[in-house]
Specification:
Strands 2-1-3-4-5 form a 5-stranded parallel beta sheet, with helices on both faces. Strands 6-7-8-9 form a 4-stranded mixed beta sheet. It is α/β, with parallel strands linked by helices. Helices cover 46% and strands 16% of the residues. It has 2 domains: 176 residues, Rossmann fold (3-Layer(aba) Sandwich); 118 residues, CBS-domain. It has 15 helices and 12 strands. Helix 3 links the parallel strand 1 and strand 2. Keywords: CBS domain, Isomerase, Metal-binding, Repeat, Zinc. InterPro entries: CBS_dom, CBS_dom_sf, GutQ/KpsF_isomerases, KdsD/KpsF-type, SIS_dom, SIS_dom_sf, SIS_Kpsf.
């Protein structure tokens, strides 16, 4: 085989699985809505289970649910038969995956849900399978050939099951109006956590703020500006609101007689600001777009609460 052959095989597989996903989308019906409503009505958790490749998919679905506002965990069917059935309780809802719907290792979990009236959502490729006949809500995968040349290795079927899990998770997210702030609470580390950091988490405040009142002589303003090392000084009015800022650019534009002036005569009025609850990624976009290095952080009444430097965003991993 040569590289062109490998590429052709890859495209064939992806095209085949894309067709299967399109069929799955068209096949969604009231059963999908019923599954969403059953999960929303549950007072406990979603218990997701499956064996083999379906088990790997089940782990991922449980993780996606848990990280997007739907409490969930994975229970291995073999371990369930040796004590882990205690992880399923009244108030939970069980989501069980099996392409054939006849996986023998799932029998104890299915029987446990029937015995203790735990709602069961089944996902399988056969509507007449044991799993789907026992389920309160049956989600049937449409017929589709596996992508492997022998038609045996779970490929297309696992792709459809995984996508169906994502569809459930997103439907639940949107119903619950899951916010970026809530998402960050479940993803505090890594790139996602950095991207969802708030300005208030990164800003400098208190004694670090470079502020002077209106009427301050430029000589004093320059001392504050250089002492705080942000390359800018904020100017506040009598009510403590931000009236303007003095930047390096303002200094260059007013070099003639600079030290004989006060900040009112030099400052840029109505400067760009950001709120403490805004995402730091938004602040970085503003700074990059306007080619500036700092933003004052102001509250609802326009009073400065902090200052954010572009380096604060870069140190936090926001780029």
């Amino acid at each position: 085989m040569n590289r062109d052959t490998y590429i052709a095989i890859g495209r064939r597989v992806l095209t085949s699985e894309a067709r299967a996903l399109a069929s799955l989308s068209e096949a969604l019906d009231d059963s999908f809505a019923a599954a969403v409503e059953l999960i929303l009505a549950a007072e406990g958790r979603v218990i997701v289970s499956g064996m083999g490749k379906s088990g790997h998919v089940a782990r991922k679905i449980a993780a996606t649910f848990a990280s997007t506002g739907t409490p969930a965990h994975f229970v291995h069917p073999a371990e369930a038969s040796h004590g882990d059935l205690g992880m399923l309780a009244r108030g939970d809802v069980c989501l069980v995956l099996s392409n054939s719907g006849e996986t023998p290792e799932l029998a104890d979990i299915v029987a446990h849900t029937r015995r203790f009236a735990i709602p069961l959502i089944g996902v399988a490729g056969r509507a007449d399978s044991t799993l789907l006949r026992q389920s309160d809500v049956a989600l049937v995968l449409p017929p589709a050939d596996e992508a492997c040349p022998m038609g045996l290795a779970p490929t297309t079927s696992t792709t459809m099951t995984l996508a169906l899990g994502d569809a459930l998770a997103v439907a639940l997210m949107e119903h619950r109006q899951f916010t970026p702030e809530a998402f960050r609470a479940f993803h505090p580390g890594g790139k996602l956590g950095a991207r969802l950091s708030k300005v208030g988490d990164l800003m400098h405040g208190g004694a670090d703020l470079p502020l002077v009142p209106l009427g301050t002589p430029m000589a004093e303003a320059l001392l504050t500006m250089s002492g705080k090392s942000f390359g800018v000084v904020g100017v506040t009015d009598a009510d403590g609101r931000l009236a303007g800022i003095v930047t390096d650019g303002d200094l260059r534009r007013n070099m003639a007689g600079l030290l004989e002036r006060n900040v009112d005569q030099v400052m840029t009025r109505a400067p760009l600001t950001i709120g403490p609850d805004d995402l730091a990624e938004k602040a970085l976009g503003v700074m990059n777009g306007r080619k500036i290095t700092c933003l004052f952080v102001v509250g609802a009444e326009g009073r400065p609460q902090g200052i954010l430097h572009i380096h604060d965003c870069l140190r936090a991993g926001i780029a």
